[in-house]
Predict the structure.
Amino acid sequence: MNAFFTKTPSSLKALILAGGRGKRLNEVTEEENKCMIVFRGRPLIEYSLENAVRLGVEEIIVVVGHLAELIINRYGISYQGTRIRYVIQKEQLGLVHAMACGQSAIGGADFLLFLGDEFFIQPDHETMVRAFREDDVFAVCGVIDVPDLGLISKTYSILFDANSRMILRLIEKPRNPLNHYMGTGNIVFKNQIFDYIEKTPINPQRGERELPDFIQAAIDDGKKIIFFELASKYVNVNTIEDITILNELPPS
């Protein structure tokens, strides 16, 4: 267990979202959950599980849906000694809906959100969680400094105050990002973030609540949310092209 957590008792849990079908992956996910795509000899979700265990979280909540049995049968009730609890997302209505499905299992704990289809090279979750504790903030968004602004259109961008690292605005899939920071799905939250689910507007095009809008609702309510450069390289697997990018990453 990480030394920081052995010295500082914490009720931090991990929430891993792994319910999506991955429609843009076409035939690749017809008989496979996209979080179970094998990369470097291991299912993609396993990297999130490992990062959660490294932090010494109290419990791992995994939200499953499409071909849920593939994940449940492989990992059972624990991973490397840390308990796993599964929650079924019966309808695929986006990330915020998946988080809402996991709320009861999270209980009153603060938590670290993971997306089961993300991969980072040498992420520093320990320091990100330390910033969350020591700066007494509502949330910390993990971001990546990318040279190609086009990559940011796949996730979200942030506008921020440079001195305090406070995020002022998040923009879902921006056409013209104003800086090189690419938002990721690895975010540390206070438990009270769940209060903002019903305050988050439903995206008219997608018919679901979007993660950046969810976080923005808390910012607009005066909550302090900062960003943290989590890793040097990152891929969120949503398309065949993303799998190619993933396989071209240098060894970590």
Summary: Confidence is low (pLDDT under 50) at residues 1-9. Residues 117 and 129 are 21 Å apart (CA to CA).
